[in-house]
Amino acid sequence: MSEKALTIAVCMDVRQKAAREIVCGVMREARRRSRVDVVLLGNHPGNDGFDRISGDTPDILVASPNMLRSFRPALLRSRSIRAAVFFGTWGSGNLPYPHVSLISDDREIGEVAARVLVRSGLREFAYLGSPHGERWSMARGAAFAEALAEKGFGPVADYCPSAKRPNWRRERRRLTEWVAGLPKPVGIFAAFDQRARHLLSVCRALDIPVPRQVQILGADDEDYLCENEIPPLSSLALDFRGAAESAMRAVFAHLAERSPLPETILAGVSSLTERLSTCDNSRTGEWVNRARDVIRHHAAEGIGPAEVARRTGASLRLIEDAFKTVLGRTVAAELRETRLAEAARLLGETELPAGKIAARVGFGNPHSLMNAFRRRYGCSMRDWYKRSRQVQERP
User: Fold this and answer.
1) Gap between the Cα atoms of 39 and 52, Å rounded
2) What is the CATH T-level fold of the domain 6-97, as seen in this structure?
3) Does domain 106-238 have CATH number 3.40.50.300?
4) CATH class of 286-384
5) Which residue in 18, 143, 217, 229 could disulfide with 107, CB within 3.0 to 4.6 Å?
6) What is the pLDDT of residue 387?
7) How far is CA 16 from CA 98, 167, 221, 240, 244, in A?
């Protein structure tokens, strides 16, 4: 490896939780490799005010396009950039380097939202999208409606964005009329947490009790917003941190062996934080979060679903039902995914043979691990190991 370290320039608007999670994912993946420097630009609190990118010469760019255009537009056309990761799609002309877009898995988000609200026993549902009618918001609402239709429920009451440029006075009036006209009780999925706050404000003004008549579910899990509302908002957390890690692994592999970058990487639902706005007396979200904590800390011990349930303090049936409701997968699938992720990390950071890795992550049988690893990552453990070393050794 040459003396020059790889430099990653990160320019994100960290007022959004998704952007903060992307920064964490980038830094976590960089930390796993030697001689990689991450420089934080823009409004990130880690920006120390010293510009450590001499002459705008990063090797890898990670950015929100809008933030980049307003803060460091010169970076976009830097000849030093070899690959880029964008938060959202890039739609303003060709770039001289390959890039991957991180976007939310709106279909999965809509489907999970439907499962969460259905299990409350509701029969009426509505969707409150973005006031600007963006494509991702419409996709989220369409998936929500399709998932409910598959479960035998009727049409979803969909709030239509105004054709005029929205201002809060006009928007509040339209929202008030829409909420007042909804059949009650009703479960409403809001496209994002700030939108859920708009809905709560209107319900309070109309003296509509939440959650007895209206149950509200948001997305993003911006905890400082959700936890301080009256009542606190339930919300779906999105896995932009994991998506960013996957994107950076793809970028490093591209730099090492010129493998093509994926066009997009999707951030799905990572968890449900249940608060009072959905008032689930079964505590489904809480059980899932408890069980995932057990899995995160003890999967390497080789435990199975029954042991996960025992350590969580619930029956196996309750935990399995909770996982299927919130995440759409089984406890066994979550255990397998956790173990494979740890195996991939060990391959990249250690010299351990497959047998010892299998024992360390709780797989037991190295052949089972090898087969599962190939199905999950599309390559053998040996190839993964070689690629990790090539990235570390490449100039």
Assistant:
1) 7
2) Rossmann fold (3.40.50)
3) no
4) mainly alpha
5) 143
6) 78
7) 25, 21, 10, 11, 15
